Amino acid sequence: MSRLVYGWLTALVASMPLWLGYALADLLTEVHFRFFPTRRHAALSNLTACMPRASRRERLQVVRHMMCSYNRMMFEFFRLPHLSREGLLRSVQVVGREHLEQAVSRERGVILASTHIGNWELGAVVLAHWGYTVHAVAGAQMGRWLAPAVRETKSELAIHTVSPEDGFRKLLRALEHNDLVALVVDGDIYNHGVPVEFFGRETRFPAGPGVLAQRTGALIICGYCERLGPGRFRIVMEPALDPARFPHTAALNAEVAATSERHIREHLDQWCIFRPMWEGSPTAQTEAAGAARGVEA
Q: Within a 13 Å sphere around the CA of 68, how many CA atoms are in the beta-carbon half?
């Protein structure tokens, strides 16, 4: 049943003219902003670290842009299963593909460390269309009821979803086969992981990139997929990080965190994180308390 519902939703969204889908996504931004206060205040709390000198009004404006970007990403996400390979690749500019090709040529697999910028899901589909097999670590998506349908659709696109609970075994096996392992490193990270400095604060960061690279010798490529405009994207892949050049795993993870922070700073309006990155921080508590005073327009 979930596959039928998901198929109906994707077909409906894909049938919309591009302009209409984006117009609806933009129109719903204010609904997202007004009626999801927990998400709004989490984003505001995070921005106190990203924009320490900005006023609350300035941060609220950025939150609106973030929510608009997320709405657009959801529209694009439901269109993906019905896009032709040629149509999708025509919509994407690529910077740094040579870094990926050089890393793959070592035949140790490649670890891709990305962030929730623009349309991270589309980036993985592009890699699959290039002929790579991608193993993406992700929890339940679109709710637990639709999650099996989402996973099945991704598998048809050569994107294999690995649950965080599965541990490293499947990822190590994927790297042994010279496949790509995709890790989104800015998700629910404060409860697990290793400490790094992130936006000037000690932050729990996923240990996966550094641990996998040090164990296997696989290179790490940090990148993102930004939205240039309606239906237009740019994938950026940085020069690879070689674990052999770092004295220990902590130093490698610190470099991944620093690169990810730079990407986020440069694309705050497309950064789609709506949970507190620093749970229990004084700024988070202050922002949450401000909910009772209403929302500034």
A: 16
* Contacting residues for 118 by C-beta, under 8 A, at least 6 apart: 69, 73, 224, 225, 226, 227, 233, 267, 270
> What's the predicted TM-score (pTM) here?
0.89
Q: What is the pLDDT of residues 90-139, one digit of tens each?
A: 999 999 999 999 999 999 999 999 999 999 999 999 999 999 999 998 75
Spatial CB neighbours of 43, under 8 Å, sequence gap ≥ 6: 63, 66, 67, 273, 274
Q: Between 144 and 257, name the one with better pLDDT.
A: 257
For residue 201, how many other CB atoms are within 10 A of its CB?
Answer: 12
184-218 pLDDT tens trace: 999 765 456 889 999 999 998 999 999 999 999 99
Question: What 3-state class would DSSP assign to 215?
Answer: helix
- Please indicate, yes or no, if residue 201 is contained in any of the structural domains: yes
Per DSSP bridges, beta strands 201-205 and 219-229 are: unpaired
Report how far apart, in Å, the C-alpha atoms of 255 and of each of 4, 102, 186, 209 are.
Answer: 43, 20, 14, 10
- Rounded Cα–Cα distance for residues 212 and 234 (Å): 27
Is 256 contained in some domain?
yes
Specify if 295 maps to a domain: no
DSSP-H helix ranges across the chain: 2-15, 18-27, 29-35, 37-50, 56-79, 85-90, 97-104, 120-129, 143-156, 169-176, 208-216, 249-266, 282-289
Q: Whole domain around residue 201: which residue ranges?
A: 2-282
Residue 238 is assigned to a structural domain of this protein = yes
Domains held by the chain: number: 1
Q: What is the DSSP letter of 271?
A: B
**Close Cβ partners of 114 (under 8 Å, ≥ 6 residues apart):** 120, 123, 182, 183, 184, 185, 222, 223, 224, 225
